[in-house]
DNA sequence: TTGAAAGCGATACCAC
DNA sequence: GTGGTATCGCTTTCAA
């Protein structure tokens, strides 16, 4: 990667043209559609590019083309391994298609989310993959943005949009039925967040219980470990014949809180109480017994979102598509009751 | 934030100038140095900007200025909470100074790291904060990049560079002396990575032991949990009179591996064996007893790095500065021996 | 197949 | 204090 150290400024397309004894138009063509240039000329240009260490000025290109070959990924919590895994998959796809990826962390803050969406607009991004805050899901409209948007993990109320998510209702139902099969009868749900995702998980849980004639017990909470622990603790302090014989958490943080409450109460899993929840986070294999979870297909989700975005970029008028994926139930000691 | 829906293209500075009955020069000045424009004119322009929902075209601005008000943060592992915390601090500073932040994850892969550095060059970034891969630390030279670089967490061999890191030797010494104070005499070190950080931590450990006339026992490892566990397991299987009475891990992943090995061996902490290590990761408070760690001042590190970068951007010729910060020893049950 | 020239939208210089 | 104009580096007509 040589660079001419005598020249104070980086080489421009003009320098390349001069050196290759060609026009800037030709140089530009060699870069974008090499087959349209005769081999010998093309080679001269390519050599000049290599010799000068020329790199196209992206700002100039964008100014001219009115768009950047750049996509954004705005996640609601970068520390959540769920999103880290997704970002890896998206990055792969983007790289393979010669698109740059900008990673942004909205931190569940609608203001930050808004500011990042404006950033992407200012940068003339070609597209955005977004896990919206619950607030945004309520007022999201795809046509409000100057670029295609693919939503991930959370669905807006009804607007048709390109979307990738887990079959949340079914996943919650599978977890619930697993607990029922283990003999649990008083399953309490730690329900975190009013997002579509949260509501669907709750619906799946309630449906499974109703089918067996059992009453749901739902604790609506903010999705933090502390809140989960605080809510679970009093439940566990009640009479063993009355208290829940299983806790089900709708996300990883609440699951952690529930686990801590169970430990603090000195109860044994799964005999005193069973535990299960969403997201196959690393910590879930640490405790003894390990915690039963429903693992989301994060790589699939990321890849699907990237594909959806590329398709829409290629064909803006296409009707929106919704991709629903299944998770994997990972049964571990916290719920696997000995027969 | 109104936008004229009748105009097919976003408003440019010309549209604003026309509407405010001013020149584009004046509009530009209102944006960059408002005080240089007379109040009444300024207000007219600002109103026109608001009415049109004008946003400056960043590509045009960059093309003209030959630099973007944008900084990059390239971390070696986005899943490591250490870096997530740092990124939050950097983001705050950047936001407060009107700089955009691009977050990149090199994943400890020198090729990806290189590609992101090229990205930042292509984007004409004003500066970059970087936690270099060990490979890069060996050949890093600040003047090889077209923007100022501040390194974080890992130091190159000798090149003078703006740099923020933990006082690793002292931190390792504190952990070691703590273990010694608890009565441990055979402290084995799980040493991860050949980076400067790793080497300094090892040096601090060795110095502390030598001062008390004890022999170091170092296991050089790749920094993964699996490797840590695999290396610790055979150590723990030996005769209780011979085996280590403490394990010290130089990073969070090795610490986790060591903890798993201890659990698998059925040993009790801290009586059978004590455990301590670096990085106050969430999981360390999960086990019973919780794990003693040296917490890094992540927010401080991020803030210091951002400040250093801003200073260098303002004064490129300034001699490089190196900021060394102290960590916090958090003594928990895994090492706190009852007297 | 190739090249000359216009123009993307902003800023910087230089007159006034 | 204000405005005209050249210019940043590239792509895109359009004509040869």
UniProtKB/TrEMBL annotation, chains A, B:
Residues 1-11 have a biased composition (Pro residues). Residues 11-65 form the HTH lacI-type domain. InterPro entries: HTH_LacI (IPR000843), LacI/GalR-like_sensor (IPR046335), Lambda_DNA-bd_dom_sf (IPR010982), Peripla_BP_I (IPR028082). The keyword Endoplasmic reticulum does not apply. Residues 1-20 are annotated as: Disordered. Signal peptide: none annotated. CDD domains: HTH_LacI (cd01392). Coiled coil: none annotated. It comes from the Bacteria. Pfam families: LacI, Peripla_BP_3. Keywords: DNA-binding, Transcription, Transcription regulation. PANTHER family: LACI-RELATED TRANSCRIPTIONAL REPRESSOR (PTHR30146), RIBOSE OPERON REPRESSOR (PTHR30146:SF145). This is LacI family transcriptional regulator.
